[in-house]
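Input record (Table S2, row 361):
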Amino acid sequence: EVTNMNRDLLRKYKEEMHLRKKLHNELVELKGNIRVLCCICPIKLEDGDGPDACSVVSVDPQDDSILHMSYQGKATMFKMDKVFPPQASQEEVFQEVQPLVTSCIDGFNVCIFAYGQTSSGKTYTMQGPPENPGINQRALHLLFSEVVRKVPDWDYIIKVSMVEIYNEALRRDLLGKDLHKKLEIKLSPDRSGRLYVPGLTEFTVTNVMDINRVLHFGHTNRTTECTNLSEHSARSHALLIISIHGVNSSTGIETCGKLNLVDLAGSEHVGRSGAEGSSLQETQCINKSLSVLGDVIYALRYKPGHIPFRNSKLTYLLQDSLKGDSKTLMMVQASPMEKDVNETVCSLTFAQRVRSVELGP
Ligand SMILES: Nc1ncnc2c1ncn2[C@@H]1O[C@H](COP(=O)(O)OP(=O)(O)OP(=O)(O)O)[C@@H](O)[C@H]1O
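Output record (adenosine-5'-triphosphate complex):
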């Protein structure tokens, strides 16, 4: 009698979970599974006049999804999902991102990209200074506290990897003992069709202290061997990959979600071949991977028959987190400076192209 009742409850529970995911997908479809946010970075002291310098971009005072800009003497506007002014706090930015982060606990795959030219604040937004951390640390803390709240009904394992992509190759295993071990993307032997990177170090986070330790370790490794960190970070993509595996202790139901946090290479290399100080190969690789990212996001909506995931290492590695009911968020970084105006227009145009995808044909 009891087992029959249990079986019945389990069936009902499974149906409920299924319905929940289905409704969620419909909601995501309605809202669009691609969101584009824009952060305007503050004017830096070293850029001249300091805080009094004139900013060429601003948020519309009535509508915080509109960015105004003066470009070649003309007033231009761009529409995003939300635009943050330079004085927005890391906390405010994170609030917009939070629902996507927690959806990974329910088994969704999510990608958050920071896009923009060098020095536009990508690393600030993703990693942030230790005293004022960005999305990476806040996301891990949030995931951890949510997961702890679900004990004892659910049992979760959170694993973290950090890796760089440089010149179309997976380069440094930032949590590994050997930074330079050769890494490749392989098809999983379990026939699931999933991709994985054999040998990439995965660190299991079991408490809050682990989070800070693992991020600190990865960030320190990122800066080692770089004679000039900003040059290095301008040329490589940095990925923080968080996987969350959950098991319901009474039903045995499993969920598997992934959160990919990506600090992209500086976009100023796009369309400027032979940029000073960078080799042609580097420039071409950055060019290619950023444009392929745009193409993939576009194709996911308009040409679902053929998605060019394989055209770059970045999209190939992330394909499971870009397709299907995955969710993507693009954080576009905009410089307020007159001297950067051409690059800023390029970044915002890229963002707008990506965003228009959500509206559908
Ligand atoms: N919102 C912000 N508030 C305060 N400082 C900021 C903000 N955004 C960026 N900065 C500062 O601007 C500088 C450049 O930012 P950051 O290094 O994040 O740029 P980046 O786009 O990651 O550049 P790169 O491509 O070279 O890595 C840093 O000193 C950073 O602290």
